[in-house]
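User: Sequence in, structure out. Go.
Assistant: Echoing your sequence, followed by the C-alpha cells.
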Amino acid sequence: MGNNPVRLRWSTGAGVTLFAAGLAITACTTESTLGPIGTPTPGAVDGATPARATQEGQQTDIECPTVTVRTGAATHQIPAGASATNVRYQGSLGQLARECAILGDVMTMRVGVEGRLLVGPKGGPGTVDVPIRIALVAEGPQPKPVWSKFYSVPVGVPEGASQAIFSQVEDDLTFPLPADKKLDNYIVYVGFDPQGAAAAAKAKAPKAAPKPKPKPAATSAAKPAPAKQPAAAAASAPAKQQPQFEPPPSPPPGVFAPPPGHN
C-alpha cells in the first residue's frame, strides 16, 4: 500500500456496504496541514465528526470511536534528531478516516491514515520503511489498551521527487462492546512508532546459534593403585649356634691317648 497509496475519501455519514452479511457502515474524514521539513507539525485534526455505527442497515445511537494522532507521534525524522540540513526524510501524518459497524456485541472498525514523506537535503530515491501504529485505548484514570497493531509501510520515493504520499488502512479493528455500549472514552490513536520498528526488527533477526559447550578436559586414565608392598619379612631368626666342643685334653707329654672305643 505504501507504493500505491489509497486516497482516503470515505464519505461522511453515508451508508456503505462493507461486510458480506450486509451490514452498513458510516464514515467520517478529517484532514490537517502538513508543515515544512525540519519543523515538527501538530497532529492531524482528530476524527471527531459524529459518525454513528449501523447494525443490520439501521443507524444506532452508538458512535464510532474518535480517531486522532497520538501526541508526539505526528512526525518522524530519519535519522532521528537530525538538524534540518542533515535530514534524509521526514514523515508527517495528514488525513484520517474511520468506518464502523456492529454485529451482535462486537464492533468492527476500518481505520485509515494518509501521510507524506518529504525528501531532505541528505535524502534521495529509494524505498523507505515508515513505522506506523494504530491502537485503540479505553481512556480513564487508568487507560486500558484494547487493540494495537504495528505496520512497517514501504514508501517508494521516485528519482528526482521531493516527496511521496503513503497510506495505511486497517480493515479489521474488531473489539467487544462494553456492557453499557458507551464508547465515549474509546479513542483510536494513530502515529509513528520508531520503537515498534526496532522491536519488529529484533524479532525478525535470526537467533544466533547457541555456542557449543566446551568439552571437559580429558582426564588422564586413573593410575592403578600401587600394589601393596608385602609386609617386611619378619626378621630372620638368629642362626642356631652349633654346639661347641671342647678339644680333648691333650695327654701329658710322652703318653699316647688311648685308642677310640677303649674303655
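User: And one key feature?
Assistant: Residues 219 and 225 are 16 Å apart (CA to CA).
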